[in-house]
Model the fold of this input.
Amino acid sequence: MYLRIRHATTYRYAGPVMFGPHRLMLRPRDSFDLRVVDTALTISPQARLRWMHDAYGNSVAVAQFETESDTLDIVSELVIQRFGSALPRTAVASRAEMSGVVYSPSEQAVLQPYLDIAAADPDGVLDQWLADFRARSGAGHLLRDLAHAIFTGLGYALRYDEGTQHPADTIRQGGGSCRDYAWLFIELARRMGFAARFVTGYIHDRAPDAAGIVSALGLTHAWADVFIPGDGWVEFDPTNDLVADRQLLRVAVARVPEDASPVSGSYTGLTGSFLGLSVGVSIEPVEEPGLPKPEAARSPDRQTA
Done:
């Protein structure tokens, strides 16, 4: 399955401002389940790009600006080939939440940051939710059941605010956005002894078999990866009750949500200069990779104004 993805981000200001460095995490990594066929990045005002891999191995473009502007446009265009994801084949029964999942010493050494709890729970909200979940969980796949419990027990709410809710607030409020669902799932999985990480990317609507998708299409999406012995990293999307589904188009992974923001940066200007942010994502199937290339530059170290 070949897909063309266009991700446009626009920042608007009341007057010209000076932009600090911006980190762009918009290019996926090639893997057995996803291959990058073509890529283009268009930025206005013009910027100098420096590419790097961050601590997680994500591809990051650092944009440096020399011109003031009242608008910042960043457009990423990708053509990718999506293959089937790795479905969990190892049974993770309910007893794992009591005895704990067993990682080898080498796995433990690498996975420790993803095992460490990152969201404090002084009021015991997460612990109580887990206790209730344990009381009603059956003999199914533990992590599938966890994703399903979040999917059915909370209400999806599209949020345009920056940042991610504390997992306890998502429970208290009875819902949140996809990134809130993912962060809650991750912190609950860690409390059960699993290594889990935050994933950002996109979701592709394959109508008519995608009738159950509740995430807002045309925006970025977030879900979770969990490392299962014998299966490796497996994708769980509690927002849509999906496991290792081809509709999930991964771009970046991180230990905490703020490390996986698609676009982050700063500006210098008058107080109240910032007027708003708009994000638009379009995904369409394409027949073959031998397509007309977008006009933007192809090379990862170049971009167009």
